[in-house]
Amino acid sequence: MSYNNVQARLSVFSTASQSSLDYIPSVGTPPPSGGRQSITPIPKASGSKNIYDRPLNKTRNAEVSMAAYTFLFSEVIQYTQKRVHGIGDLEKRLGLFGYRIGTRALELMVWRSEGGSKNPKRETRLLPVLYVVHTQLWKAIFGKTADAIEKSVENDDEYMIIDNDPPITRYISIPKEMSQLSCSALTAGIVEALLDGLGFPARVTAHSVPKEGFPFRTTILIKLDRSAMEREEALK
């Protein structure tokens, strides 16, 4: 076979291969007169939409499986526990994890509340901001509101958000030698990130305060920064 014939055959094969990449023949279509088969593109499956193409507002009330939630949190605890030295360090690491979650949660909450509003409103007073944490943040993260907001009797710059049955600790069994550990430090980090983002810097910690009927009752203690208290006094 001559070189010219070989080159001609290769050009035919390359053309056919390119056609097969561009189109997929439909099943059961008879070939038209002329010997070539009719070729039509296959439509994209309706259920193959990318997750990034879904509108955020339509997933507002979507729920996550509790089994998946507890498994993921268990993995976070185990991952963190292997890299710390002591209970204080473990709670600090959990707080950092929570802070990252809180910054993203705040961004999503603001987008949903102000995305369709012509006159978006930003809270500048302390009590409305605490109500946002008590209601909107808890619903967005845990699917329910917190049980109470209390002000410290001793210090004017301290507030407490109380959750009688926090889902984050519902399925956690803490050993006796680590009884002082509060895994809700993750929640404290989330709250601290939200307050920082809304312009109310504070130091937030979690404390286990069991009560009859509520063995996992948790108090999120918010100690506001001096600058936030001074601004609140000026707005009065």
UniProtKB/TrEMBL annotation:
The keyword Ubl conjugation does not apply. InterPro entries: NO_sig/Golgi_transp_ligand-bd, TRAPP-I_su5, TRAPP_component. GO terms for biological process: endoplasmic reticulum to Golgi vesicle-mediated transport. The keyword Endoplasmic reticulum applies. Residues 23-45 are annotated as: Disordered. Pfam families: TRAPP (PF04051). One of its GO terms (cellular component) is TRAPPI protein complex. It is found in: Endoplasmic reticulum; Golgi apparatus, cis-Golgi network. Keywords: Endoplasmic reticulum, ER-Golgi transport, Golgi apparatus, Transport. Belongs to the TRAPP small subunits family. BET3 subfamily. Part of the multisubunit TRAPP (transport protein particle) complex. This is Trafficking protein particle complex subunit. The lineage of its organism: Eukaryota, Fungi, Dikarya, Basidiomycota, Agaricomycotina.
